[in-house]
Amino acid sequence: MSWTEKLNDTRGQLRGLNKTIPDTAKAFGALGKTVKEGGVLDFKTKEFVALGMAIVSRCEPCISLHCDALVKAGATREEVSDVLAMAIQMGGGPAMMYAGKALECFDELSAG
């Protein structure tokens, strides 16, 4: 399955979850909006942090969502690679495997 398909599946699953627990979904969405719009770090930097955390926590759906956000935010492959290196340093061998997935995802989503 391609990363684009995985991303679409994740979004579909989230839409289903949002319909089932709308109050929780609305509150979570508000938290995300507040965190991403507030503070001193810009949106792209915050997405870099989120991608690093997604890699270390081994969450493929999170990797696809944050890679997509980074592509839309204008992140470069070199910038993402720096994040991957940091995630590997913090997460060891398992992070190395998920960093490979993240790079593949970023490359696919940024190509199309």
Q: Could you state the oligomeric state of the chains shown? A: single chain
**Overall CATH class:** Mainly Alpha
What is the mean predicted local confidence, pLDDT? 96
User: Which percent bin holds the helix content?
Assistant: over 70%
Question: If you compute it from the alpha carbons, what radius of gyration comes out, rounded to the nearest whole angstrom?
Answer: 14 Å
SSE succession:
HHHHH
Residue runs with pLDDT of under 50 for 5 or more positions: none
Number of strands: 0
CATH topology: AhpD-like
Computed structural class: mainly alpha
CATH architecture: Up-down Bundle
Please tally the helical runs, counting DSSP H or I stretches of 4 or more residues: 5
Percent of residues in β-strands: under 5%
Give the CATH H-level superfamily. AhpD-like
GO molecular function: peroxiredoxin activity
Protein name: Alkylhydroperoxidase AhpD family core domain protein
Pfam families: CMD
Domain Carboxymuconolactone decarboxylase-like: 22-103
Structure description:
The protein is mainly α and 112 residues long. The chain has one domain (3-111): Up-down Bundle (AhpD-like), CATH 1.20.1290.10. It has helices at residues 3-20, 22-37, 43-56, 60-72, 77-111. The mean pLDDT is 96. One of its GO terms (molecular function) is peroxiredoxin activity.
Describe the structure in brief.
This protein is mainly α and 112 residues long. It has one domain (3-111): AhpD-like (Up-down Bundle), CATH 1.20.1290.
